[in-house]
Amino acid sequence: MAARVVQTLPEGDDWMYEVKLDGYRALLLKKGDQIQIRSRNDKDLTRTYPGVAAAARQLRAEQAVVDGEIVAVDRDGRPSFQALQHRGSHPDHAIVFYAFDLVHLSGEDLTGAPLEARRAALSRMLDGSGILMSMELSGTASKVIEAVQALGLEGVIAKRRSSPYTPGDRHTSWVKLKLDRQQEFVIGGYRPGPYGLDALVVGYYEEKALRFAAKVRAGFTPRLRRDVHARLELLAVVRCPFADLPSTRPTHWGGGVTPEEMAGLIWVKPQLVAQVRFVEWTADGHLRHAAFLGLRDDKRPRQVRRET
What we know:
The chain folds into 3 domains: 1-21 and 135-180, Dna Ligase, domain 1 (2-Layer Sandwich), CATH 3.30.1490; 23-133, DNA ligase/mRNA capping enzyme (D-amino Acid Aminotransferase, Chain A, domain 1), CATH 3.30.470; 182-303, CATH 2.40.50.140. Helices cover 16% and strands 36% of the residues. The chain has helices at 50-56, 81-85, 115-126, 141-150, 222-232, 259-262, and strands at 2-5, 15-20, 24-31, 34-39, 63-73, 94-105, 108-109, 132-133, 155-160, 170-178, 182-191, 199-206, 209-216, 236-237, 266-268, 273-277, 280-281, 287-288, 291-295. Strands 11, 12, 13, 14, 15, 16 and 19 form a 7-stranded antiparallel β-sheet that branches. Strands 3, 4, 5, 6, 7 and 8 form a 6-stranded mixed β-sheet that branches.
């Protein structure tokens, strides 16, 4: 089940709030001592996160399917998507799993039960396991937003307490307010440069067309440039995959792409997805001050749409 982006949080007794965690969405599947961790595009992450799998074996249930997020947290419990992706370079971060929903328990399908009942059962099952509970934030919507902003966290999720679990498209019973503007974008090309890569050319799908969003130059270390370039150079193609390039008029770097600039770019099959932070969307529909955060192997490119 996915959350829909909103500009204001809903209020009322039937809504609960949680921190929007900056990690990889995943399902834990437990059957006796057998554990699987599946990403939202059904990639097996079990061997990638052995500590999470070990904690899941301690769940107080013979069989269960738990929905949650794999997160890298520092000593203060603050999540970092970059640390999660490059955990070998961040020894001060721990990899944990925050659970926020229970889909199946000991042979019983819980998708039709109210969220409040599912979370009550989830809390009992997690006790002593090492899998963490994504806790409800108390207070009014404005107080919750103020507290989350003060901590420098990404955003807030609001969920109807009475909502069933509805897999698939983004649902109005779960909504998210982003305080730190970022989302996934599809990589359609790059400009060569130091360590193989100077900037990414990214976009999003509108129906079947890949639309240009930005050229992303900030956010890279030398190691990141080498690692990302190594994956991109295997996907090189001759034809530009963007439906709306070149741009119809000259723009500053970070805006459109002129015909002259296109000659210096290398196009790739739109198979990789990048997490990008930015300040705002411009009137031309491009990102202002975009910065690379990491690659997302848990997201299918065709699922990427403009969110804000």
